[in-house]
Design a protein that fits this description.
Low-confidence stretches: none
Number of domains: 1
Distance between the termini: 14 Å
Order of helices and strands: HHHHHHHHHHHHH
Number of helices: 13
CATH architecture: Up-down Bundle
Mean pLDDT: 84
CATH topology: Na+/H+ antiporter like fold
Number of strands: 0
């Protein structure tokens, strides 16, 4: 028990303190989080990816393995989410929102910071690959799930070419493999911008949570939260074993699989006519409950 409390105090509490500042800021100033999240999405996060991949000591095989296993994990979570939604008899609107909350892992706002605090820069490098995988599935399958009842699902493929993340990934890999060399001032600028990514994302998460209510359907919320926080790592474990992922990469992958639901689910649900009230409630529930689940998970593997 003391070990769990120690992990919560040293690793998760600093993250919660920053998120709490965002919550207070959001309540006090009624700030529009889209401005800050836009800056993070188009400036800070791409810079973090370029800088992290450019300086990564990971071999290409390990990068490919983490990325591939994350895609398999996402597809597995979709199937599990659909199965539970079908068994529980949810309507089409709630079904889509339910699967979204199971699929969308908060690998960015929360996961990158946790990996950095728990495992240091090497952990952050591996978490970045996982985060890239979640972004790929989110901008394709996630948009399709949210827009199943509309005619705009085809835009999911276009979104992959309109967001900066794929280009940041390629640039970072090209620098790492020696195909491109950027001038020193440019790389230092990218590094400085990347260092701002995690705190900006945590503050943004806090602002977004300040506008979230847990009022809604309790049983579906509990089911979705349990799958996201508990079943996620349990599904990831056999994938890690079968895929041959070992050491720090296996630890980071397992922890990232147990992250809470990302706020992006609510944005997608609102944009494409799913169930934003339900997704918001799951985001808040999993974020709070993850203090316990992630503390236990980290204690078991560290």
């Amino acid at each position: 028990m003391l070990l769990v409390l120690g992990v919560a105090y040293n690793i998760i509490l600093p993250i919660l303190l920053i998120v709490s500042l965002g919550v207070v800021f959001g309540h006090r100033f009624k700030y529009n989080p889209r401005v800050l999240s836009g800056a993070a999405f188009y400036i800070f996060v791409p810079a973090l990816i370029v800088d992290g991949l450019a300086k990564s000591s990971l071999q290409s095989g390990e990068i490919g393995l983490i990325f591939s296993l994350q895609i398999v994990l996402s597809l597995s979570l979709i199937l599990v989410g659909w199965f539970f939604a079908w068994i529980l008899g949810y309507d089409r609107r709630l079904e889509s929102a339910f699967v979204l909350t199971v699929l969308y892992i908060n690998a960015g706002n929360y996961g990158l910071a946790l990996s950095d605090f728990a495992f240091g820069p090497p952990g952050m490098q591996r978490a970045l690959i996982f985060f890239i995988g979640t972004s790929v599935t989110g901008n394709t399958v996630g948009v399709f799930l949210a827009s199943r009842s509309t005619a705009s699902a085809w835009r999911s493929m276009l979104n992959m070419f309109l967001v900066p993340l794929p280009y940041a990934t390629l640039l970072g890999l090209f620098i790492n493999f020696g195909y491109i060399a950027l001038p020193v001032p440019v790389m230092r600028t990218i590094t400085l911008l990347g260092q701002a990514a995690v705190p900006v994302m945590l503050i943004t998460l806090g602002i977004q949570l300040s506008r979230t209510s847990i009022i809604g359907r309790l049983k579906p919320i509990i089911w979705a939260s349990s799958i996201r926080l508990i079943l996620g790592p349990l599904i990831a474990l056999p994938l890690i074993i079968l895929g041959g992922l070992t050491g720090l990469s296996a630890q980071v992958f397992l922890v990232m699989a147990g992250m809470p639901t990302a706020v992006t689910t609510t944005i997608l649900a609102t944009e494409f006519g799913s169930d934003p009230e339900f997704t918001s409630a799951v985001v808040l529930t999993t974020t709070v409950a993850s203090v316990i689940t992630l503390s236990i998970l980290l204690t078991l593997i560290m």
